[in-house]
Amino acid sequence: TISERKGLYGLGPETFLTGELLINDGRSYVSRVTSDSTMAVTQTYDVSAPFLVYGHVREWRSQPLPDSISTISELERYLDTITKTFKRPFVFKLAGEVSNALIHVQNLPEGTQVSSPQEAHQGQVNYTLTDEQVEIIGFFSTEHQGIFTHHDSFLHMHLITADHKKMGHLDEVAFSKMEVFLPLR
């Protein structure tokens, strides 16, 4: 239902928690579990979500991610420090190589009733990535914990590999050589 797709970035789970969604510069991707070690990633807008955080970015400014930043918690502190003057929340992007990463894809069985965050994650399947070229789309907010970020984080990020064969919610990462893109203010 989002009509303006130019410069659109977004992420969220697929309806009924059966997959993950990523919108990267107007292209919409859905990942779904096919086995404990494989997934299918499809480019489509024929999908719905129980929630989707999204924003439009027309121009980015980029800079190398400092070598001292190698984990999600270090990235969170870094972004918080360098964006004190930004209007929040905001979308950001990372591009480059990860040494390793852990992503998950939601995969609840049909008809599963969910009444807590623990129940929502019961069907997720985890995938480990090693030495991959990736793009990571993320949202930063100090005001939306438990809404579109986890209750203990200011970040929500989805990762997609350069070949578009793997995509999911980013849980852990060891950044290698990365570029960080922030909205041009």
Question: What would you say this structure looks like, in words?
Answer:
This protein has helices at 72-82, 117-120, and strands at residues 8-13, 20-24, 27-33, 39-43, 53-56, 60-64, 90-105, 125-140, 155-161, 167-183. The longest helix is centred in the middle third of the chain and has 11 residues, at 72-82. The two termini are 27 Å apart. With 185 residues, the protein is mainly β. A hairpin with a 5-residue loop joins strand 9 (155-161) and strand 10. Strands 4-3-2-1-5 form a 5-stranded antiparallel β-sheet, with no helix packed on it. Strands 6, 7, 8, 9 and 10 form a 5-stranded antiparallel β-sheet that branches.
Describe the structure in brief.
Helix content is about 10%, strand content about 50%. The protein is mostly beta strands. Strands 4-3-2-1-5 form a five-stranded antiparallel β-sheet, with no helix packed on it. Strands 6, 7, 8, 9 and 10 form a five-stranded antiparallel β-sheet that branches.
Ends apart, CA distance between termini: 27 Å
Q: What is the element string, with H for helices and E for strands?
A: EEEEEEHEHEEE
- Helix count equals 2
Please summarize the sheet with the most strands: 5 strands, antiparallel
Rg over C-alpha atoms, rounded to the nearest angstrom: 16 Å
Bulk shape = globular
What is the percent of helical residues?
under 10%
Mean pLDDT: 91
Q: Which stretches are low in confidence, meaning pLDDT under 50 for 5 or more residues running?
A: none
- Fraction of residues in β-strands: over 45%
Strand order of the largest sheet: 4-3-2-1-5
Structural class given helices, strands, pairing? mainly beta
**What is the β-strand count?**
10
